[in-house]
TrEMBL record, chain A:
Keyword match Oxidoreductase: yes
Originating species: Hansschlegelia beijingensis
EC number: 1.8.1.2
Short name of any one Pfam family annotated for the protein: NIR_SIR
Protein origin, superkingdom: Bacteria
Sorted UniProt keywords: 4Fe-4S, Heme, Iron, Iron-sulfur, Metal-binding, Oxidoreductase
Molecular functions (GO terms): 4 iron, 4 sulfur cluster binding; heme binding; metal ion binding; sulfite reductase (NADPH) activity
PANTHER family on file: BLR3264 PROTEIN, FERREDOXIN--NITRITE REDUCTASE, CHLOROPLASTIC
Domain (Nitrite/sulphite reductase 4Fe-4S) ranges: 119-273, 411-548
InterPro entries: NIR_SIR_4Fe-4S, NiRdtase/SiRdtase_haem-b_fer, Nit/Sulf_reduc_fer-like_dom_sf, NO2/SO3_Rdtase_4Fe4S_dom, NO2/SO3_Rdtase_4Fe4S_sf
Cleaved signal peptide residues: none
Domain Nitrite/Sulfite reductase ferredoxin-like, chain residue ranges per copy: 52-110, 336-400
Protein name per UniProt: Sulfite reductase (NADPH) hemoprotein beta-component
4Fe-4S recorded as keyword: yes
TrEMBL record, chain B:
Pfam families: DUF934 (PF06073)
Name used for this protein in its record: Phosphoadenosine phosphosulfate reductase
Enzyme class: oxidoreductase
Superkingdom of the source species: Bacteria
EC number: 1.8.4.8
InterPro entries reported in the protein's UniProt record: UCP030820 (IPR008318)
GO function terms (MF aspect): phosphoadenylyl-sulfate reductase (thioredoxin) activity
Alphabetical UniProt keywords: Oxidoreductase
Length: 553, 195
């Protein structure tokens, strides 16, 4: 993991001191809420429906056990005993008192964390594949580059007042687990024919009210040019992105209105200018120095086939299901990556109590080199678990109420906070997620349905990524009534697609039944269990689902 | 530092007093770490160009540049955020001041224009921030190359007068020509501290 040096500590400390002063000025009344707003946003503090919310950055979703324990401490001490992991790999605390926030930031700084770049029209916390540095299918770990981008984008003097927020995501494998094509900039780390590292660059993806898949602007960008190229993109956007309408201000609209070819030309021209000075070229030794922080842990040798695991599988159906769903192949034989589901049946997707965070920190210390990841699917991951240790880990997770073996299944729902917290919401989203997870909760039913991603947003801002859901649910307001629209066929992976609206919406009471109808229709028409929901939708289109929901036309 | 390579001006003997709160505020010029008298005259679109240092809109400067070349006093140009800086680039050697506009503090276009002006075109004259210039953005503006600020906002004036400069002096980006001395810090090639 990256470690702060003196400079990083000084930076975060100075920022916290500055914010403490601003909070004091707000509490004393010297600053109005209006004047305070841009200042608090720079430090991750939002005003929600009922209270201030603090969003803490978890850069590229990587946490250590001590950091997770600090998050538990904050949840216990300053909040109501829980935190909410978000689709941007961050964690939100929903109930902190403003007067406590400087103390929380001090606590965070003590474990090398902060809440910078988690709000405002700046370059936001950089996300990455939650399996980075461990997955068997990876070319190279993208996190060193994410860390370089995190540093370079922190309080950037030129790019802190962009037309709109700006999100970057990185992957290092062909399977896209970070939905890079739905980001303002998506970067895929690759090797060229000579073995040199570089990036395929995508620009202009996004969700919100105008979902767009990103355009590829570069096949291969040498790694040393990463900052120069990103600066070129940022400058083209900062100068030309629309500022007359906040709904048209993201770079996706600029790309769309300018045309992918022309925007690519502009970016390349700007890039050539940036290259004329050397200041952003990344020296190889510096890339390697940062990469060394992310060197894979020295994992003791373990047998590739674990007899302890096999025995436990034979013993317990639940355990076997858990292993099948929640364990992913690791680079190192004898190890796996374990997804810890934060989607218990009837629970709130992404929420974890302080006790659960403590438990995860302990289990990570014991079984995963003290390393934890937050996934954009609002789950946690232990990235380096010996297969031999899986039975013991599973027992520990059960004790903490974290042993749901539903990763990637129908109950592994992404859901935004919705009307229970969010001032922008049209509809409650959490109760819909809870209802769905109860309907589909029976293990046999989930298994039968197989891979199916349901994503729920309480309004058109799409924080719940409904456009990328195999089944997407979008909360709309119909004359004061909370109504959900259903989209089908979206996907956030390497074959990214925007889901298509299937027809008129359903009341919040009926939407659960409607989703069941969709799923039952799929089960009837699929060519076999090997044909996933998404594959079936791509094959048959919307018609059979429409007929099932609304009757034959 | 290009910040020092401006057209020499007489330093103001007295700092500009903040106007009464009710009067429509005349901008006060913050330069060289203090409020200074502004020797530049803004020229209305159809007014005659005065004898002394004259600040013209870009369109007028471009339209009249031949006639203006005959003048003997310094010229300045105001560039709006939606205007093309490239059009000014060929004539920058005749320009002593460029004023860039922040229509709202949250509109950061002028920050990019400032860096292009300094780093790409090598502009060494005065680079002035105008419009919605607020204390919290000023340190960032200075890092983009601005070395003069027209300040209307009353609290900002008060804080400047009281010596406040809310900079976090740990920089994680090299910018080519900040209006302050910045030196490499630590091992990373992109980290800087104030010099
Ligand atoms: S999608 Fe809408 S309701 Fe949900 S969190 Fe985002 S803004 Fe709020």
């Amino acid at each position: 993991m990256y470690r702060y040096d003196e400079f990083d500590h000084g930076f975060v400390k100075a920022r916290t001191a500055q914010f403490r002063d601003q909070v004091e000025r707000r509490l004393s009344g010297e600053l109005t809420e209006e004047q305070f707003k841009p200042l608090r946003l720079m430090n991750g503090v939002y005003l929600q429906l009922h209270a201030y919310m603090l969003r803490v950055s978890v850069p590229y979703g990587t946490l250590s056990s001590p950091q997770m324990r600090m998050l538990a401490h904050i949840a216990r001490t300053y909040d109501r005993g829980y935190g909410h992991f978000t689709t941007r790999q961050n964690i939100q605390f929903n109930w902190p008192a403003l007067k406590d926030i400087p103390a929380i930031l001090d606590d965070l700084a003590s474990v090398e964390m902060h809440a910078l770049q988690s709000s405002g029209n700046c370059i936001r916390n950089v996300t990455a594949d939650h399996f980075a540095g461990a997955a068997a299918d990876e070319v190279a770990d993208p996190r060193p580059y994410a860390e370089i981008l995190r540093q370079w984008s922190s309080v950037h003097p030129e790019f802190s007042y962009l037309p709109r927020k700006f999100k970057l995501a990185l992957i290092g494998a062909d399977e896209d687990r970070a939905a890079i094509q739905f980001h303002d900039i998506g970067l895929q780390l690759k090797r060229d024919a000579t073995g040199a590292l570089g990036f395929t660059v995508y620009v202009g993806g996004g969700q919100g009210r105008t979902p767009m898949i990103a355009h590829k602007v570069r096949d291969f960008l040498p790694e040393q040019d990463l900052l120069a190229y990103v600066e070129a993109i940022m400058r083209v956007y900062n100068l030309n992105g629309r500022r007359d309408n906040k709904y048209k201000a993201r770079i996706k609209i600029l790309v769309h209105e300018t045309g992918a070819e022309e925007i690519t030309r502009q970016i390349e021209a700007e890039f050539q200018e940036v290259l004329k000075t050397d200041i952003l070229r990344l020296p190889d030794e510096e890339i390697r120095r940062i990469a060394a922080y992310f060197a894979p842990p020295a994992l003791p040798e373990r047998p590739a086939r674990s007899s302890a695991l096999e025995a436990a599988r034979a013993d317990s159906r639940d355990f076997a299901d858990f292993v099948d769903r929640n364990v992913t192949p690791h680079k190192t034989a004898g190890y796996g990556l374990v997804t810890i589901s934060l989607k218990p049946v009837g629970g709130i997707p992404g929420d974890a109590t302080d006790a659960q965070m403590e438990a995860v920190a302990d289990l990570a210390e014991r079984y995963s080199q003290s390393e934890i990841r937050v996934s954009h699917e609002q789950n946690l991951v232990l990235p380096h678990v010996a297969l031999d240790d899986l039975p013991a880990l599973y027992a520990g997770l059960r004790e903490a109420g974290l042993a749901d073996g539903n990763a990637g299944l129908v109950t592994d729902i992404i859901c935004c906070p919705g009307l229970d917290y969010c001032a922008l919401a049209n509809a409650r989203s959490i109760p819909v997620a809870q209802d769905l997870s109860r309907r589909f909760g029976a293990p046999e039913r989930q298994k039968e349905i197989g891979e199916l991603k349901i994503k729920i947003s309480g309004c058109i801002n799409a924080c719940g990524h409904h456009h990328a859901g195999h089944i997407g649910l979008l909360g709309v307001d119909r004359k004061g009534e909370e109504v959900y629209q259903i989209t089908l066929g979206g996907s956030g992976d390497e074959n990214a697609a925007v889901g298509a609206l299937i027809g008129p919406g359903f009341s919040i009471a009926d939407v659960g039944g409607a989703v069941e109808t969709v799923v039952d229709t799929y089960l009837k028409l699929r060519e076999g269990p090997q044909e996933s929901f998404l594959a079936a939708v791509r094959r048959v289109g919307q018609k059979p689902f429409k007929e099932a929901l609304y009757g034959a036309a | 530092m290009n910040a020092l390579a401006r057209v020499p001006v007489e330093p103001a003997a007295t700092s500009v007093a903040a106007p009464a709160a009710s009067a429509p505020a005349e901008p006060a010029l913050w330069r060289n770490g203090r409020f200074e008298a502004d020797e530049w005259e803004r020229v209305a679109p159809d007014a005659a160009v005065p004898e002394g240092p004259a600040l013209l809109p870009l369109t007028r400067f471009l339209a009249e540049r031949q006639a203006l070349a005959a003048r003997n006093a310094p010229l300045g140009v105001v560039v709006q955020p939606d205007e093309a800086l490239e059009e000014l680039a060929p004539y920058l050697d005749r320009v002593s001041l460029v004023a860039l506009v922040f229509p709202k503090f949250a509109d950061g276009r002028a920050s990019s224009m400032a860096r292009v002006l300094r780093e790409r075109y090598g502009f060494a004259g005065e680079l002035r921030a105008t419009g919605d210039v607020l204390i919290d953005q000023m340190p960032l503006m200075r890092r983009c190359g601005f070395d003069a600020f027209e300040v209307v906002n009353e609290p900002t004036r008060r804080q400047l007068a009281a010596g406040k400069w809310p900079d976090v002096p740990y920089y994680l980006q090299p910018t080519g020509a900040p209006a302050q001395l910045e030196v490499p810090a630590g091992t990373r090639p992109w980290t800087r501290r104030p010099g």
